Predict the structure of Lytic murein transglycosylase.
Amino acid sequence: MRPTLLTACLLAAAPLAAQNAPCGGDFAAFKAALAAEAPAHGISADTARSFLSGVRQDPNVLKADRSQGVFQMPFVDFSRRLISQSRIDKGRANARKYDAIFTEIESRYGVSRGVLLAFWAFETDYGAVQGDFNTVNALVTLAHDCRRPGLFRPQIFAAMKLYETGDIDPARTTGAWAGEIGMVQMLPEDILENGVDGDGDGHVSLKTSAADALMSGGKMLQSLGWRAGEPWLQEVTLPDTLDWSQTGLETEKPAADWAALGVQPREGTLPDLPASLLLPQGRKGPAFLAYPNYRVYFEWNQSFVYVTTAAYFATRLMGAPVFNAGNPDPALSDGQMKALQQKLATRGFDVGEIDGILGAKTRSAVRAEQARLGLPADGWPTAELLNAL
């Protein structure tokens, strides 16, 4: 069973504490250290030992963690791969089926049904594909691994608390390879903080209850800063004379200022909100204004292409048309992108890991070098830029 899209990239911005968290060494000794630490988190040593007794290291989790090439795809290809007519039809059917739940979420948390439907679709195909990795094995394996222990070690103690309430079974609870559980894929800490018993049965059952999963997802988005009643992404058309260096998430202007520069909505009107102009594949491809709620997506997920696709799909589910794909310049190959990142890093830019993925840091560096070289500074790397460097 494939890993969900959320698990494939939520790890891109792990906390700095990850560098100092205990990890590695003998796995049995590592488990014993977890049990010894549990009382400091309000968990009895007996509970911790019971929770950890059957835990095994899972090499398939580590393999999945190191296989995340899907996010190297450009936005147009990625979105076409994820957004099918079947997913749109199922989303609209679920919007009708759970209308009362979505209405309550919109009233209580201010989160549009389109937003939650898009997450639900992409993470688990509306609950059909939730992952078959043992959750506790996955969390302990990733905490023992020394890549991001600071992210996963706290999740183990949160899972122990869910074990105490009967909401996690170490032997039977399954989910994604990075330890998320349920229809909208939430980590144990997020379940503790934002889990909602939407169906009133006394438990937060994100795997089996759509009401619990959707209500919990709505509460989580609100806690991350979602602003009620505001849009998140809007397709726009652009003049050929635009200053492309102003595009990207680093620049934010009132929507009225973008309008004064010739940026126009493809449908409807521009709201009275600050916005950034996004060009996922440069000035020749699709164009969107991203509003404050768009940035909340990055609190859920760290991949630019995933976030933009999820945000766009949410607008589709709310009635927006298919985006105008335009005719963007060809994307660089994996090898070319890594070579470009290496050249940018050599020039002093922080592009993060040399991974072939066009993330926010690489886009910013590309834009700066395009401007320096007198190229259109739209953040889309081309063979021309690579050759110029």
